[in-house]
């Protein structure tokens, strides 16, 4: 093959070296606009997984890298005057300059034609003259910009500012310095990369950056290689204690807004994007160099394994994209956590440390426990202390109060529409459904959305609380739950609005009824989506009528024996559709600004609060984002939450979306938890209001991790409980928890131990005379090179 590589960074050079090793006959030419000695940055961090791949692909490079690595396993978190150390993590880092020099030498000795200080020819020429054109030209890729219709790039500049610096202080571990200043919260990401220095990245939200006066150089243009020394001087002043007399090192150091790069496609004819040109991931998760070198290895392998460039590039993208997207999801969660770090400034230090460690969802409680059992135990003890409990137990089995209502644990069965009622009356199906979930150990069981009128139903199969017969049927269910379990039971009441008069879910989700349909109401005469009903714009008189229907439903819920009531103001139903600008385009006092859009939902909430007993908690469910352009955002959700709290709610159930049919949600594990986190830590916790997290949460490890990090007070699971009604009790058994938070019904108690299911579960005889010695894995490994750490000694030696 004849290969052109645009960009002589680690990704491009490593790819060239690998291709020449696979077949020396390949002609590989690399163009690099900078000189060979132009190296920006300080340290590069690698995972053990990546190092294993490098070792398999090129032992020469791997062996040299291993001799230059700084290795450690500890993370030190400095927060509110204390340092907490967490071990068992495993890091390896080296100087970016040394890595680049190594890759340059290796490429050239293998016969790669590397042309430094040379701009590549026009890409059209390269496409015509070479079999493959590799665009490894970085974040601001000119090749990507040349073919936007093919690559379909998405560039997302973020809200925080950061500057890449170094220090001659050699850290012993990965360091997070989180510092509260007069301007706001700032943080340092620091780690050693050799026996001579450490990376020292300073980061803060742009609002903090401006408040601190760093924007003084905002309009100043710094040539390549020139650093913003005014800002560096200010950084040295602010972080003087952390630097402990050591110096700050610069290398093309200036303020940057991190940009997340995504591309729908990485290929255009015989061009392929690699590294930052194709994708970026925030530095708090891993290095771009690591990702680029992994790309290079995968691409070289696919080219070697396939008979055509087209087939190889297709295989490369198929193989590599899921890995990259997984990394980007974790990186997105991490960068958003750091953008919002100020909301945790008052958190308990141990909880803050756990929160930081689990920010990307790649590390969970169970994972941390395997790495550092001592710190995991400290987290459990701290959570019990914070919640006034004398018993150390898994977080999910710590009790919790919503207002005056006491729950034995923090697991909630999420509201799930069953579409199985007749004329709104719940029957034996609902008794078994909710009764089994209550007996399965959850602390709180929620009904599906119980509709406040016949035309407020979603489908003909939805339940209601608008007749006495329905109220009596619900009373039968609450009595069963109270008589046969420790669970409390809550009713969620709502009105379908424009999403009503539709088929049962399994007959056609959100599809209008063909027979027996009814008129649907909405704030504006706008359909939910293509093919849906055009609703009637609700009048003031109808608004009054619906409000009184909510009040009547609340009174029946109390008479039926429900312990908690939740008003459904999410998912595009009537109250939710008033809140969103996508569904509410009224021109009267109920439309326009968010304040106006809140007006009617708050009227309903006030009326329900007045009708619902004061000693029983009242909650609300909201959609924290509409997942659609022009709709509500998480910042709007904060204002909605503030308003609801001011009007007397005791809990807020934080969901998202389902406002419009053409939404584009970012699905993923625990994907809605960050919204609950933001509302809890910026609004609800200070008001004593319970926050419930929902959305693709399915393991007890995730439940515990969310609670321990302080992202929510309760966790609601839906489909997980459909799969296993006794999920909570089984989670207790698997965690070997025995206590008040998970009490087995007496007839079920014999089943609290998992029965043997195969020969592999049998007890094995001892067949060896001597036991194998246990491997003593070192939890805490520090980087301690043989070098005097005193700054004065370094100066005299120099």
UniProtKB/TrEMBL annotation:
Residues 396-733 form the NADH:flavin oxidoreductase/NADH oxidase N-terminal domain. Residues 125-328 form the FAD-binding domain. InterPro entries: Aldolase_TIM (IPR013785), FAD-bd (IPR002938), FAD/NAD-bd_sf (IPR036188), OxRdtase_FMN_N (IPR001155), YqjM-like (IPR044152). This is Bifunctional salicylyl-CoA 5-hydroxylase/oxidoreductase. PANTHER family: BLR3436 PROTEIN, NADPH DEHYDROGENASE C23G7.10C-RELATED. One of its GO terms (molecular function) is NADP binding.
């Amino acid at each position: 093959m004849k290969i052109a590589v645009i960009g002589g960074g680690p990704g491009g050079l490593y790819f060239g070296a690998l291709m020449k090793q696979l077949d020396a006959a390949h002609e590989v030419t690399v163009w690099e606009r900078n000189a060979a000695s132009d190296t920006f940055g300080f340290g590069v961090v690698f995972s053990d997984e990546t190092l294993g791949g490098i070792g398999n692909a090129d032992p020469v490079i791997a062996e040299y890298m291993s001799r230059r690595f700084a290795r450690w396993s500890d993370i030190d978190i400095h927060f509110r005057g204390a340092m907490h150390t967490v071990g068992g993590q495993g890091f390896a880092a080296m100087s970016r300059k040394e890595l680049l020099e190594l890759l340059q030498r290796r490429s050239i000795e293998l016969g790669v034609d590397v042309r430094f200080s040379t701009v590549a020819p026009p890409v059209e020429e390269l496409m015509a003259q070479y079999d493959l054109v590799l665009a490894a030209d970085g974040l601001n890729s000119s090749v990507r910009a040349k073919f936007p219709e093919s690559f379909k790039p998405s560039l997302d500049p973020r809200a925080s500012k950061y500057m890449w610096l170094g220090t001659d202080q050699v850290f012993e571990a990965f360091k997070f310095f989180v510092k509260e200043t007069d301007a706001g919260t700032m943080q340092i990401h620091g780690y050693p990369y050799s026996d001579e220095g450490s990376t020292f990245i300073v980061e803060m939200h742009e609002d903090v950056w401006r408040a601190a006066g760093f924007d003084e150089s905002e309009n100043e243009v710094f040539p390549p290689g020139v650093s913003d020394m005014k800002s560096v001087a200010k950084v040295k002043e602010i972080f003087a204690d952390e630097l402990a007399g050591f110096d700050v090192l610069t290398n093309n150091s200036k303020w940057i807004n991190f940009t997340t790069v995504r591309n729908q496609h990485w290929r255009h004819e015989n061009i392929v994007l690699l590294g930052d040109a194709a994708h970026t991931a925030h530095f708090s998760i891993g290095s771009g160099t690591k990702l680029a070198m992994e790309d290079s290895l995968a691409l070289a392998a696919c080219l070697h394994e396939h008979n055509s460039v087209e087939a190889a590039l297709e295989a490369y993208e198929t193989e590599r994209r899921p890995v990259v997207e997984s990394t980007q999801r974790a990186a997105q969660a991490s960068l958003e956590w750091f953008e919002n770090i100020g909301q945790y400034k008052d958190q308990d230090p141990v909880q803050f440390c756990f929160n930081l460690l689990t920010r990307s969802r790649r590390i969970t409680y169970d994972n941390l426990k395997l790495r550092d059992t001592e710190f995991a135990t400290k987290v459990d003890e701290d959570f019990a202390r914070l919640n006034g409990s004398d018993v150390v137990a898994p977080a999910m089995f710590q009790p919790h109060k919503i207002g005056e209502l006491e729950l034995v644990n923090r697991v909630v069965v999420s509201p799930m529409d069953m579409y199985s009622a007749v004329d709104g009356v719940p029957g034996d199906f609902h008794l078994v459904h909710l009764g089994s979930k209550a007996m399965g150990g959850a602390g709180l069981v929620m009904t599906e959305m119980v509709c406040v009128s016949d035309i407020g139903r979603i489908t003909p199969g939805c339940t209601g609380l608008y007749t006495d017969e329905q109220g009596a049927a619900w009373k039968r269910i609450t009595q069963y739950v109270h008589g046969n379990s420790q669970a409390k039971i809550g009713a969620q009441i709502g009105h379908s609005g424009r999403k009503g008069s539709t088929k049962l879910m399994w007959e056609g989700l959100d599809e209008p009824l063909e027979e027996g349909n009814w008129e649907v109401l909405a704030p504006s005469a706008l359909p939910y989506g293509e093919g849906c009903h055009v609703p009637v714009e609700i009048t003031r008189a109808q608004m009054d009528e619906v409000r009184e229907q909510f009040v009547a439903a609340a009174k029946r819920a109390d008479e039926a024996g429900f312990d908690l009531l939740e008003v459904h103001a999410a998912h595009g139903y009537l109250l939710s559709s008033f809140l969103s600008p996508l569904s509410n385009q009224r021109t009267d006092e109920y439309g326009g600004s968010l304040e106006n859009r809140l007006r009617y939902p708050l009227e309903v909430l006030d009326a329900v609060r007045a009708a619902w007993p004061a000693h029983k908690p009242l909650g609300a469910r909201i959609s924290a984002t509409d997942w659609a352009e022009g709709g509500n955002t998480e910042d709007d959700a904060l204002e909605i939450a503030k308003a609801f709290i001011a009007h007397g709610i005791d809990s807020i159930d934080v969901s998202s979306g389902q406002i419009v049919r053409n939404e584009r949600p970012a699905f993923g594990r625990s994907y809605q938890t960050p919204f609950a986190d933001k509302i809890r830590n910026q609004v609800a916790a200070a008001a004593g209001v319970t926050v419930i997290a929902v959305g693709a949460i399915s393991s007890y490890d995730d439940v515990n991790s969310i609670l321990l990090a302080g992202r929510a007070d309760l966790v609601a699971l839906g489909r997980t409980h459909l799969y296993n009604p006794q999920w909570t009790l089984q989670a207790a058994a698997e965690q070997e928890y025995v206590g008040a938070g998970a009490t087995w019904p007496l007839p079920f108690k014999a089943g609290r131990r998992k029965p043997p299911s195969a020969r592999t579960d049998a007890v094995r005889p001892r067949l060896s005379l001597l036991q194998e010695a246990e491997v003593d894995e070192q939890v805490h490994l520090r980087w301690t090179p043989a070098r005097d750490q005193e700054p004065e000694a370094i100066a005299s030696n120099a």
